[in-house]
Design goal:
five-stranded mixed beta sheet; 7 strands; about 130 residues; mainly beta; two-stranded antiparallel sheet; 1 helix; about 5% helix
Length: about 130
Amino acid sequence: MKIVYSDKKTGKTAQAEVLKDREAMLIGKRIGDEVDGSAIDLPGFKLKITGMSDKSGIPSRPEIEGTAKRYILAAKSKLKSNRGMRVRRLVRGNAISADTEQVNTVITEYGQKPLEELFKPKEKKAE
């Protein structure tokens, strides 16, 4: 499972892998809940869950309860030519399960680590 965390102040985003033994801390949490950053080695940080997707790329919706997959009628686009047209879409519920692959979060409380250490620039590989 991966956690993508972002900072609203700077607009930067980074990604971290959750170890298998720490995944239990996240199972059952819902979109909108706050989780402790210690799951991804960010002690003192609080992360608010804003969204997620499962192993096959199906996104989660906050209004669908639980972890099951559901078909919903969603607006196709906001273009004038397609106004009022809806499409049946497959989405997953708002709770984290074992099938969840990526969890999107926003930092709400900061810990002791400086932001420069959290959002390190990628190093270019020399060929």
